[in-house]
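[READ THE FOLD]
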Amino acid sequence: MAWGGVALFVMAGFSAIWFSTLKIPSLESFEERKITESTKIYDKTGEILLFDVFNGIKRSIVPFEEISENIKKATLAIEDVDFYQHKGIKPTAIIRAVLVNLGALRFDQGGSTITQQVVKNSILTGEKKISRKIKEWILAIKIERILEKDEIFSLYLNEIPYGGNIYGIEEASRAFFGKKSQDLSIAESAYLAALPKAPSFYSPYKNKEGLEKRKNLVLQEMLRNNFITEEEHDVATKEVVEFKPREDQGIKAPHFVLFVKDQLEKKYGQQVLETGGLKVITTLDYEMQKKAEELAKKHAEINKEKFNAENLALVAIDPKNGQILTMVGSRDYFDEEIDGNFNVATAHRQPGSAFKPFAYAAAFNIGYTPETVLFDLPTVFTANCTPQGVGKDCYAPQNYDNVFRGPISMREALAQSINVPSVKTLYLAGLENTLGLAKAMGIQNLSSANFYGLTLVLGGGEVSLLDITSAYGVFANSGVRVPYESILKIEDRDGNTLEESKSEPRQVLQEETADKISDILSDNAARTPAFGASSYLYFPNRDVAVKTGTTNDYKDAWIIGYTPSLVVGAWAGNNNNTSMEKKVAGFIIAPFWNEFMQTALKSVPIENFVRLPKETSLDLKPVLRGKWQGGDSYFIDRISGKLATEYTPIETIEEIVTGEVRSILYSVTKSDPRGPTPSNPETDSQFALWDYPVQEWVKRQGIVTQNPQNLPTGHDDVHVPEFFPRVEIKNPDQGERFQENDIVRVEIEVNGRFQTASAQIFVNDNFLGNIEAPFTNFSFVPEEVGLTRGENTLKVTVTDVVYNKGSDEIEFDVR
């Protein structure tokens, strides 16, 4: 007990000493301190200042008696109703905050009085530590002993931030309502009292709904504490208050900067952002940004006149590292006519056909091919409806041009953005698979598959331009996702690095699938029937993949295009959700996107997509290889006219497909297209719906199927081993030695049933040359063809006029 008493005595002594040495800094230094320590946001070079968070602080100090009683009451009601009763702190609030934060040993919960907030905002740093909180309590008590309550309240109202560069109630009153603070109404006071808790979040320029709710809370608290009457409460609740337009704050790339500012505020808190002196280097390419803003204004004016589409947005990202290079959220941030400060790049809208590549990618993942044939015919997809469309709420989508094309490959359907085969692709790929893939690629806000149904592939879900542009970056980056980021580096006021960009690439899509999508979306020949050979989507000297999208109600027009090193998404429409003229995205948004891409591509390297050959394996089902004329394949040798064998060369094989013309569900189980042919395809709920229009189409076309009984029964007797060319290398001899600069002459002798056509020469499997019959000598110098000293293999392959092949090889030595 004695030792415990000594410990308490010592602790009390130290506390007393600490308390007595704390000094309140001069109030005149507050304004200067905030300005010198404001956070600055730069472009990626670290040289171009985009925004000084509190550059040009606006503050007008007014005497306490000239401030409206309405704002005083509103502030007390929501911030500190017991202000005039306590001595600087409220023990009950402190105990509550301590209990809430006890587990984390931090003081995220405040319980702060108005006096404490004056201390926190003016004297202490914003760090969330117990020691800082204790200092805050002590200083609050000390200030209460020195200053009168009205003086403290005056400091609070004259210094508190109300958003942006607006400090103090007088400046807030002028900025938001164009009047002096002494003239504020009850409703206006409630709005302003609602702001200090989180000025950026409750800003009337971007979160009117949130601000309205908090304003009503303020009024309720004023009524509850008898600061206003019920009649005054009801009148103020219903009063329509007009906010003045936001003033230009000397900001570059405003939508992007405020996007970054919101991230910083969420991570570091408003106090640090305001006074922490941070230097934030972002990912923005300001030269690219300026061009985008210039073109957005230009093309929005054109679109407004031509298409009733007055707004535009654009996002550019480097898919290799996820860095946001450009973000334009509207044609003009300061354009009040269209609510230009609203950032459409981060808003959620329906993407139309721009979502289709995710369904095709999911289909390719499970074994479908770009050559897979689907029927583009009027089709009902609702299981409880008849194929003729009899039933309730039968879903039967149309194509954008109201044309149906019959059999079409997945390549052509995606490239030309044909709706019916795309809905079929989504069904084959699986809703869950497609939705899961889209989320893995970066589209985060989609709901469950049941919420959308098959409309998902036509843009039934809502996405942001930023998310879908980032997700397309996975296609550009061969299946690797690098999440988008906007900040490269953050330094504190002393130049210490607080955080630095560290990309986290992850393979979320099969590389081969990503390459297939890029191949299709950059295939100008495949999209030409829909867009023309020289559309805004085509870049003659660059590999550019691109997809457009238009919503059914013509409220949104999209385009997302990319190279391996740049992905750019753009949107056109109206912020108020009114429809545009009934034109597809290729007319409305593509010219803007194209002009920006022409400029942006000059700053990125020329890179080509991987071009994958068609799958020609005869083990694949005919429908996966582009054959729709039947389900059974027979292979005929064109020279003998008989059935092909294992010896028949690929050059002479002709495929004949027999059987009925049916929908793909007759040949494949949707989740396992390369597996066994289904024994009872009728069990698939979509089978009858898909097959009926195919049968009707076959009748209208007068198609006669090939009868397998008319096929030959004998087997190819031209391409048999005994007829293959017999080749013998006569020179050089087996094991012969040569110097590196010797001339090696190749002589061969050929015998066979058919006349020889050509010979191919290989050394160590590297092709050296081709000679046509009648053969002449072929020669080479080891040094000139890159041979090193040691043993080498010479091989000669001879092809005859019917494509039979024979070969011979020997070993020779280079000294």
